[in-house]
Structure to design on (283 residues):
């Protein structure tokens, strides 16, 4: 099968198209994933700014023995959004206040915040925040993935750490849908490319097949027949013209040989006739 030029052209074209398609798809997916991560981080950071602004404002107005806890409760109630979890911790890791123990995220209802706060990845986020003013990290727990953001801030009761967790269930579903779409589109594109490549190769090489059939019918009896030239300016037209010029030179050479043989036979007739007559006389 690889002896066929049409098959080789189709194969090379399909492989090249598949590589280009895969590279483009992977690049698009990487860009989408990166931009989605940047957008999520920016949204979490802005929400943390708003949450802390509410806490600081409430601290100025909250009376009572524990104004920090009341201020955090007000901020949590004001920033109660689906897929977001807030938690405020003291510098030693002790929880001050957080979103309700059971909260709803996309794909799972009544997720336990206490279980999430006990996961190793969450403790790693808190530990990392102790060495910097803010830090991002991925947090895993109870089959859910979260994007975590920790920021240190100061209160009259001491330094605290705000942690904002965003459920990645919905963004991961979107990325999974994109992967499924690519998994369907890429094979279909390769199949269409192979069919189109074979059609183009067959269409392009059809003049060569025609020239081959015409050349196979040319012999000594019809040496003055020539190949048909569809387009004198393209490569196949130049090939046909070169072959026709070769046939012209071959026909001219054969005609010269025929004329030489005719002239030689004519020149030899008289001497042979004389020799024949002398031989008859001598005999």
């Amino acid at each position: 099968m690889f002896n066929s030029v049409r098959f080789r052209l189709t194969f090379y074209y399909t492989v090249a198209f598949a590589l280009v398609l895969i590279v483009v798809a992977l690049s698009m997916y990487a860009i989408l994933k990166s931009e989605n991560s940047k957008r999520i981080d920016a949204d979490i950071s802005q929400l943390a700014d708003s949450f802390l602004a509410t806490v600081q404002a409430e601290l100025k107005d909250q009376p009572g023995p524990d104004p920090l806890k009341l201020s955090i409760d007000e901020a949590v109630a004001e920033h109660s959004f689906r897929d977001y979890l807030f938690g405020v911790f003291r510098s030693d890791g002790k929880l001050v206040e957080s979103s309700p123990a059971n909260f709803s995220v996309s794909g799972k209802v009544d997720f336990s915040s206490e279980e999430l706060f006990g996961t190793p990845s969450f403790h790693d986020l808190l530990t990392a925040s102790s060495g910097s003013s803010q830090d991002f990290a991925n947090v895993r727990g109870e089959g859910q993935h979260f994007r975590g953001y920790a920021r240190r801030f100061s209160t009259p009761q001491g330094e605290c750490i705000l942690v904002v967790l965003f459920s990645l269930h919905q963004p991961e579903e979107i990325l999974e849908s994109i992967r499924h779409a690519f998994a369907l589109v890429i094979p279909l594109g390769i199949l269409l490319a192979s069919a189109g490549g074979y059609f183009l190769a067959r269409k392009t090489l059809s003049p060569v097949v025609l020239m081959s059939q015409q050349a196979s019918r040319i012999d000594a009896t019809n040496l003055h027949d020539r190949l048909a030239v569809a387009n004198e300016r393209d490569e196949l037209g130049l090939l046909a013209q070169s072959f026709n010029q070769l046939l012209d030179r071959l026909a001219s050479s054969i005609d010269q040989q025929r004329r030489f043989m005719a002239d030689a036979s004519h020149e030899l007739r008289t001497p042979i006739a004389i020799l024949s007559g002398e031989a008859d006389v001598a005999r």
Summary: Helices lie at 5-61, 67-78, 113-117, 120-129, 169-216, 235-282. DSSP finds six helices and seven strands in the chain.
